[in-house]
Amino acid sequence: MSTSPSTPPSTPPYPIGTPGTPWGAAEKAAWLARQKPQRSYAEEVLAPLMAKLPAQAELFQYGRLDYGRLGLGSYPLYAVRSRAWKADRPVVLVTGGVHGYETSGVHGALQWLTHEFDRHAEAAFNLLLLPCISPWGYETVNRWNPDALDPNRQFKQDSPAAESALAMACVAACGGRVDLHVDLHETTDTDNSEFGPAKAARDGVAFDWHAIPDGFYLVADTERPVPEFQRALIAAVRRVTHIAAPDAQGRIIGEPLQQAGVINYAKRALGLCGGMTDARFVTTTEVYPDSPTASPAECNQAQMATITAALDYLRRA
C-alpha cells in the first residue's frame, strides 16, 4: 500500500555544506535563508483559539518565542487548560506541533478542543493542551526551529531550544504531575526527501534512509510501553483510518514492531516531547498525510480518536 520506495533511491547531496563535514554558522545561516513562510500561525492557530473556547476551557499565554536576533519575528505561545482545575483529578497533557510541519498534530488538537474538551473536562480530568509548540516551524512547514535544532530532541534540562524549554516550563507551572500524555505527530514523505537529508548534512553523516509507512502508527516509550494501552488506541484509530504495516524486516522506520501499529523509542534518552513527564501512560501518534487513501480530515480524525481513546482508557485504569 505504501507509495514510498522500498529501497533507498539515488539522491544528490544536500545543497548546503560539504558531505561528511558538520555545519558551522555559515551553513546554518544559508539553510535559514532558504526558509520562507508558507502559512500563518496567527490566522490558522491563534485566531481559532481566540474566537470561541469551550465553556470548560481557559486560554493562557505561557511564553513568547523571540527570534529577533536572527532577523525574524516573535510568536506568542498559548495553551488551554481546564477552567475548574481540581487537585484530586488525573492530569492529561496533549501536545501538538512540536514539529511545525506536521499539520494534523496542530489541527487535530484544535478540533479536539472544539468538539471534545468540555465533555472530558466536566467528567473526570484536568486537561492541558499545547496545540502548536513550534509556530515558526508551522509557518515555514519545517521540522526544525530557526537555529536548525529539532525541538523534539531537546526536551531535557537546560534545553537549547526555546520551544522545548517553554513547553516544559508550562507543564511544570501547572503542577508538573501528568498521568497521561498524548503527543501528536506525522511521518511524511518529506522526512526522506528533505528533513532526513538536511539532518545528515547538518551533522556531517550519511543519511539513514527508511521507507515511509503508509498508515497510522504509534510510538510507545521503551521505559513505559504499556502494551494494553497502545493496543486500545490502535483499535480506536482503526475505525477511522488504516494502520501502517511493517516492512519486509518487520520494522517501521527502522524500529522493530512491538505489536500491530506500535514501535518503541527511548523517549527520555532521545530528548523527545513524550519523555518530558513521568506519566503512567504516554504515546506519540504518527499519521501519514501523504497516503493516497487518507484525506486531511481523516488525518485530523485519527489524532482526535487517539486522544479520546486514551482518555477512555485512563478512566477505566
Automatic annotation (TrEMBL):
It comes from the Bacteria. Residues 39-317 form the Peptidase M14 domain. GO terms for molecular function: hydrolase activity, acting on ester bonds; metallocarboxypeptidase activity; zinc ion binding. Residues 1-22 are annotated as: Disordered. The keyword Iron does not apply. CDD domains: M14_REP34-like. Residues 1-16 have a biased composition (Pro residues). Its cofactor is Zn(2+). GO terms for biological process: proteolysis. InterPro entries: AstE_AspA_cat, Peptidase_M14. PROSITE patterns: PEPTIDASE_M14. Keywords: Hydrolase, Metal-binding, Zinc. The keyword Zinc applies. Belongs to the peptidase M14 family. This is M14 family metallocarboxypeptidase. It comes from Paucibacter sediminis.
